[in-house]
Write a structure and sequence with these properties.
There is one protein chain. The chain folds into 2 domains: 3-103, Orthogonal Bundle (Arc Repressor Mutant, subunit A); 130-288, Regulatory factor, effector binding domain (Multidrug-efflux Transporter 1 Regulator Bmrr, Chain A, Alpha-Beta Barrel), CATH 3.20.80. It has 10 helices and 9 strands. The protein is 39% helix and 23% strand. α4 packs across α6 (85-96). By secondary structure, it is of the alpha+beta class. Strands 1, 2, 3, 4, 5, 6, 7, 8 and 9 form a 9-stranded antiparallel sheet that branches. The mean pLDDT is 89. Pfam families: Cass2 (PF14526), HTH_18 (PF12833). This is Helix-turn-helix domain-containing protein. InterPro entries: AraC_E-bd, Cass2, Homeodomain-like_sf, HTH_AraC, HTH_AraC-typ_CS, MarA-like, Reg_factor_effector_dom_sf. Keywords: DNA-binding, Transcription, Transcription regulation.
Amino acid sequence: MDALKQVNLAMKYIEANLAGEIDFSQVARLACCSEYHFKRMFSFLSGYSLSEYIRRRRLALAASELQNSNVKVIDLAVKYGYDSPDSFTRAFQALHGVNPTEARKRDVVLKAFPPMTFQLIIKGGNEMDYRIVEKDAFQIAGIKKRITLVYEGVNTQMNDMWSRLTEKDFIELKQLSNVEPRGVLCVSANFTEDRAEGTMLDQYIGVATTQTVPERWTVLPVDASAWAVFTAIGEFPKALQDVWAKIYSEWFPTSGYELTGGPEILWNESKDTSSPNYKSEIWIPVIKK
């Protein structure tokens, strides 16, 4: 099956239904994957959340209609899914910099936002080291905080979390660690739906275990699953973030796997990240399409 062709069929469906209700289960069926996986993939490939893309496309179409017809603002608001003319006007002005009435003028500057399609670009043959690991159910035991998602650079909220743990804490956690990936881990879970940069997720620092966990630690149950495990070696965090991007832009579209929606795990070889050949592993729960 041509995964790229299926994704573009889903995009055509979205485009054809911008003036009505978009059935995201149908989008997923056309793309031959789950809703969760499609939205996650779309965000990584396009740089926009799916909801933001749809919002911008609708407002671009509305601008065109205002310039080329006598349509009423209230009718456009209803057509493109807004509760009231006021909410439509606020959204329109936020994108275009002018209100709908001003947009009717011929000399006004408006934002174009063309429909999006995806194509395969062949690049240099960069190898990606990965393996598929089957794991029984386990749990993550450690500390948890709701933090902001950051795709590039250092996330200072993570530094704050690490500073909360004492040497005694690390010793206790490592004693609990009894299944792969072993050692202290960073675990990301419960992302907001579109997983756009700046949105929220639950971040854990802890260990993978099947042991009884003392009450002072927060526990995250993890279901049995297959896991795609990727190795990143290089300057931290750039090499790691480059591998993350390649997983979604290069590996997933051709792998035959999709996301389960479970937690994603990062294993780092040590606390000292200064080595130019620093090693990390990314563990992502997957399922065969």
